[in-house]
Amino acid sequence: MPPTHHISSTSRALYRVFVLPNLRSTSNGIPVQFAPAFAPTYGPPSIPIGPVPHHQQQVRHKSWAPKDTRRHALSDYFVLDSAINAPRVNFVDAHGTFHKDMATLDALNSFDKVTHHLVQVTEGRVDEDGKHDPLYPPVCRVVSKIDLRAQHARKVELARKQALGVTGPPQKNLELNWAMGEGDLKHRLNKLREFLEEGRKVEVLLGPKKRGRKATGEEAQEVMEKVMGTVEECKGAKEVKREGTVGGILTVVFEGMEVKGAKGEGAVEEQRVETREERRERKRLERMRKEGVAEAQ
After folding, report:
1. Checking DSSP bridges between strand 139-144 and strand 116-122, what pairing results, if any?
2. Using an 8 Å Cβ cutoff, are 78 and 119 in contact?
3. What is the DSSP letter of 83?
4. Neighbours of 220 (CB within 10 A)
5. What is the pLDDT at residue 165?
6. Rounded distance between C-alpha atoms, residue 179 and residue 214, angstroms
7. Which of 45, 157, 267, 287 could bridge across to 262 with cysteines, CB 3.0–4.6 Å?
8. What mean pLDDT value characterizes the chain?
9. pLDDT by residue (tens digit) across 244-254?
10. 224 Cβ partners below 8 Å, 6+ apart?
């Protein structure tokens, strides 16, 4: 006789109570014990299987923005080296020394072209015939290729954002506390000044220190006065929003002056990406040029 398998009544009872209710039947109604081992299951029989109504279907759409494959050369954003067509220039060397009314060829031969470029900072004046005015030559300076590449990357990024409809530089956020040390506060205020001079919107969050000493009312007021003093030093900067109280949680939004009335294509981008050191140097060169013209007259 073939061997028989004896299953106790206890095992059968446990199987019926705990195992059998959890088994899923196949879609064609075949009992579980006769269904193939790897037959697909579709949920308990009590749930009807059918097509999903059209109004309940979720369709996901994915779109891709056109990739900018243009070649962004330095010459597209800067006038440099052999592209400077003025015969004479006001020249600033790599050490920051100003040389008035220097031959352009001499300026080009005065630095290492492997590591630096000669960049035209300001345009000179020309007459009706297109000839350069000797009293107002362009100002050119020697810039390292590393620094120029960094400026170029900022210009390309700004142009990309403007093409996408993002106007103006992105907003910056600064966090200060009322009991902040003098050194840390000075560093944050310098950052605030830098952002405002770039024409950015800056959100300043001031609050009490989470741990440690709490500032007095006079100390909190002094910090607020320093913040407002820094904003007043930035020409055209203004406060646009304020929420909270001095000494507690205070949020103040400042906005730098938007550069308007720039001459020439790309002048707005040039002024926005210009660093503070470059801006100071440009203003100093303009003053020296005006003084030189006054002496000549």
Report:
1. antiparallel
2. yes
3. G
4. 21
5. 62
6. 6
7. 267
8. 75
9. 888 888 899 99
10. 206, 246, 250
Q: In this structure, what token pair is assigned to residue 49? A: 């299987």
190 has a pLDDT exceeding 70: yes
Candidates 237, 268, 249; CA nearest to 172 is: 237
Residue 230: how many other CB atoms lie within 10 Å:
20
Is the CB of residue 172 less than 8 Å from the CB of residue 166? no
The dihedral formed by the CA atoms of 38, 44, 47 and 51, expressed in degrees to the nearest 10: -10
Distance CA 207, CA 177 (A): 5
* DSSP labels, 193-262: HHHHHTT-EEEEEEE--SSSPPPPHHHHHHHHHHHHHHHHHSTT-EEEEEEE-TTS-EEEEEEPPPP-S-
Output the pLDDT for position 115: 92
Burial of 108 (0-12, 13-18, 19+ CB in 10 A): middle
How far does CA 116 lie from the centroid of its chain?
27
Coil, helix or strand for 119?
strand
- Residue 143, classed as helix, strand or coil, is strand
pLDDT tens for each residue of 9-60: 777 777 777 777 666 544 455 555 555 544 455 545 544 555 555 555 555 5
Which helix (H) or strand (E) segment holds residue 107: the answer is helix 104-108
- How distant, in Å, are the alpha carbons of 66, 201, 256, 289 from that of 284? 43, 27, 22, 9
